[in-house]
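Running log. JK asked me to keep both predictions on one page so they can be read side by side. First protein, sequence followed by its tokens:
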Amino acid sequence: MAKPDPPLTGDSLIKEVCRRIRVARSYWDAHNNAACRGERDRALALYNTLTKEQKQQIPQALRVWLRYRSEKYFGEHRTPPKSARKSSKG
């Protein structure tokens, strides 16, 4: 059984947040909403662990996408995705 990786800190944490936001944006551009939602949630969880100074090191375009633009589509006020769709061909 593999040992879990130690938690990220400092510059490696900032790089990982940026990477996850970029991956989420690429899923967004590809119209893969389920994957985008999952990656965005992981990025947001890491982003929320950053200090104010560390958040300022994230490029502004990534911060804006994560906090505002994607909130419009994935926020709590939206209808949650359905788990399994059944096509009604009859």
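And the second, directly underneath as requested:
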Amino acid sequence: MSATADHAETNPAVKLGFQPEQVVQEIGYDDDVDQELREAIEKIIGSELVDEDYDDVADAVMLWFREDDGDLTDALVDAITLIDEGSPVWLLTPKTGRDGYVEPSDINEAAQTAGLTQTKSMSAGKDWSGSRLATPKAAAKKR
């Protein structure tokens, strides 16, 4: 297998499902984030990630969150204020055994409280796990 083919299959940025020309808002950036993942996402979308001060609608959100970052539910509610219904929020938390690890039950509870549904979990780099959370579709509003 070539190194290029192997990289495409194991590149978490590809597995996260980002597309060219998407606007991806990044929240919770700090020195410990996975720089390779960030650069791979920027390569796919063709631009830099926008930060938490971005005040227009984003196509997706990447939320880096550690156990001591505060209230996860509040962070998720804030993360979905400027995305369309059905858009993904990728919650990136330290893997088991790493500083700042967040229990999966805490993620599930916070997501439900924030009105999100967890649709996928995966490794998002050497030290980070990713949970894909989705906002509800507009169908619920048609009642």
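Observation for JK regarding the second prediction: The longest helix spans residues 35-45.
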